[in-house]
Amino acid sequence: MGRLGRQTKAVFAPVLTPRFGMSMGMAFFSITLVLNMAQIRIKDLTPHNLSHTFYSSENKFMKYYENMRLVYEIESRVRDLRNASEESEREREEQNRHREKNNNQTQEQNENNVPEQRHEYSRGLEAQLLALSGNEWNLAMQRRAI
After folding, report:
1. How many of the other CB atoms lie within 10 Å of CB of 49?
2. What pTM was computed for the model?
3. How far is CA 129 from CA 41, 121, 123, 145, in A?
4. What does the pLDDT average to over 64-86?
């Protein structure tokens, strides 16, 4: 028994030092603190409970992911509808501009096609003759005589 005690003491001598004991104590404290914050109890660490926790977590994640996917698809469809309505609105505005431009052009053409109204300021041949200069008046009188 004495011999076995000496051999085990020699093997476990480094483990029984105060430095190693404090390190093990801190490791144990850290692990229990993390498990407590994650709300995991020691009885939950059985293989059956671990698999149940894993699959329930996976289900929660998949539901979250599917909901996010659904939301994303709805948002993309709404965005497509908005873009389509904006495009149709732009097309309508452009058609209105085009119509207004055509209307303006036809109005200008109609205004240009209206014959000019000539104002005759003379009331007859005599008034025209009076408006002529001396030489032009003489020529006009000679033509009239002919």
Report:
1. 13
2. 0.30
3. 127, 13, 11, 14
4. 84
